[in-house]
Design a protein that fits this description.
mainly alpha, two-stranded antiparallel ribbon, 7 helices, 2 strands, 63% helix
Length: 197
């Protein structure tokens, strides 16, 4: 028995959800095929040495990038704490391009640690500073483009509206306090909580 009402429309699958499993499967097949070709041409010990060498190099790169990220974080906290004690605004972030691309360096190390020749080649490419810089600029532009073209009501739109900009360009963090009609208006003798400690 049908009631005559049309069935609810299923949400349309995004391209990423459709093609990502196929891309992962194709990547795995390509990795296995390349490993067998190289093993037939040079021997199994050579392939094993390549895989172990890639894992060791990847672990070294990730460790180094993690130390650099922790050092940058510690320096930023120290500068912010010194500025707060002096009563000044925290200094603007003045990192160089090499420090900005630390995430791509970690990604390169992780790709080297994954067993496979294609992932090792991609990881080695990410170790080149010019490649990291180029990818970083592309990623920044892509994020800016998505943030400016956010449809109303989306998560990006909410994130943009959550930031309050002062006329001098500084971003002020704040909190919205709603007074519901059921509670009634706030009495003047009640102190308001501070926005920042």
């Amino acid at each position: 028995m049908t009631t005559g009402a049309p069935p609810p429309l299923a949400p349309k699958r995004s391209r990423a959800r459709t093609f990502l499993p196929l891309a992962v499967a194709a990547w795995l097949v390509l990795e296995i095929w390349l490993l067998t070709v190289v093993a037939n041409a040079t021997g199994a010990l050579t392939v094993l040495a390549l895989l172990v060498g890639g894992a060791v190099l990847g672990a070294t790169v990730v460790k180094r990038a993690g130390r650099r990220a922790f050092r940058n974080l510690r320096t930023t906290f120290q500068q912010a704490q010194a500025a707060a004690q002096a009563g000044e605004a925290p200094p603007a972030d003045a990192r160089t391009g090499a420090e900005d691309r630390n995430g791509f360096l970690m990604l390169g190390g992780l790709l080297l640690m994954i067993p496979g020749l294609v992932s090792d080649a991609a990881g080695l490419l990410l170790l080149i500073p010019q490649v990291r810089s180029l990818l970083g600029r592309y990623a920044e532009k892509a994020v800016e483009r998505r943030m400016t073209a956010a449809p109303p009501g989306s998560l990006q739109d909410a994130f943009q509206q959550a930031r309050i900009h002062r006329p001098d360009g500084k971003v002020v963090q704040g909190e919205v306090v709603r007074e519901d009609a059921s509670q009634g208006p706030r009495r003047p003798e009640e102190p308001r909580p501070p926005l920042m400690p």
